[in-house]
Structures are given as structure tokens and as C-alpha cells.
Amino acid sequence: MNERVVAPAWLDDNEGVRIVDVRDEWEYDGIGHIPGAINIPFDEFRAEEHASETGSGEGMLPGEGVFADLFGEAGISREDHVLAYDDHHGVFAARALVTALLYGHPPERLHLLDGDFSAWQLQREVSSEPPTVEPTEYEIRRPEDTPLVDAETVAEALDDENTVIVDTREEWEYEEGHIPGAVRLDWRELVDDDTRGLKPVEEMEAILDERGIVPEKRVLLYCNTARRISHTYVVLRYLGYPNVGFYEGSLTEWEADGRPIETS
């Protein structure tokens, strides 16, 4: 277990954390935000085009320059601990964190708030004042070892008994078409609707074990455009899964390449 997912009280004991609110600007300004949080709306760190159209091989990652400008303008450096949150059980915030990870921000300095803004607002103070920010020159350092996998890696794993391919979408999406042999795990199954955060560890582990998604296997994640797998990736790494692959192109790229689809 590690501090990839942290409770609100964690902020009480850790000063100097850069808090990133990925909600829309009108929510950040109009509804309020966690005190000290800087706003980087979700749409700002998503590419407008997909890898199948651009040929970039990087799905909907925004590009190094765009991401460096976003974090730099928010006053974030590579040395900073970053905590992200949204108001959708953490799925958009997780995407921001995985994007930072893929561009080389140290993983031990990336944290997802357990719960979201609605849960925070019920128990804690909120603010309508944006913090004073001193811009930085954010430095991109691509890691040598990355969880990114491409379509060919997924294809080669279809018959690998030591790998489980996981579809994190809803049941109806899975039934309409999925990568052959993929196990369905809707990302929301690991979320508690009452607390808006993660379910208890033992409960999550039981759900995963039932699907054959176990730490002993390599886990390859996909959805449609890599948003939902971001949350599942953060959770699995939080639970100590050592070998989790992130198929950024996801089913959008897989289908565009004319690869096989299985229906239920």
C-alpha cells in the first residue's frame, strides 16, 4: 500500500502540496474549491484528436509542450507533491495524474484525493479565492520505464495465460464490442457511492479476485479514450499491483486499426 490515494486528513499533515482542481472553471469559481487549489480544467490536458487520426501513438495525451505549460502556469515543478481532485469520484483527476506520470513526474509525488469535491464540501471548508501562483518552468523528463502499451502488445497478450486484459467500461458498452477475451470491470465498481471515494480495500480485492484480476498476473487496461482506465490504474497501483499496462489508444484505436472485436 502507498500514498497514491489519500484521505482529506492527509493534507493536514503535509504542507506545500500543490492541489489541482480539474473541474470546469465555472465550478471552481462559482461553487468554490478546496482552499489553495489551482484550476486546470480536464479539457485542457486532452488532445483534440486521437492517435488513430494523428499517428502519434499516444492516444489523447496533450503533448509535452502543452502539458509543461499547464503545470508551469499553475506554479508546479517536478519537485512538488501534487494532489488532484474532481467532482466525479476521481476519474478525471486520475487522468490528470496519469498524464503527469507519463510525462515524467515522480510517481511518489502524485496523489489522488479519496472522495471528491462533493464529499469534501460536506465536512470541510471551501474557498472562492484562487491562490497566488508564481509560474515555473516545468521540465518534462520522459521516464525510461512507462506503463504505456501499444495495440501490438495487447494483441500479443490475447492468448497469454499470465496476462489479463481488462475492459473498464459499462456493461452495455462491453456487450456491444470488446477486445477478445477481455474481462469486464466497470471502474465504478471500485467506488463507494455514499463516500464518493474508494470502497474498503478488502472489498475491492474481493471484486478483483473474482474477475481473475490478481497481482500475480500482468494487467492490461483499456476503455474508449483512456479516461476511465486512469482511475483503475491508480487504484491497482495503490493496491500494490506490480505490473499494470496502460493502453492509451484503447478501443478507439483498436477498432480504427481493424483489429478483432468480440460481442456478448
TrEMBL record:
Rhodanese domain boundaries: 13-129, 159-263
SMART domains given in the database record: RHOD
GO function term, MF aspect, one: thiosulfate-cyanide sulfurtransferase activity
Pfam families in alphabetical order: Rhodanese
Keywords in alphabetical order: Repeat, Transferase
Protein name (record): Sulfurtransferase
Organism: Halovenus carboxidivorans
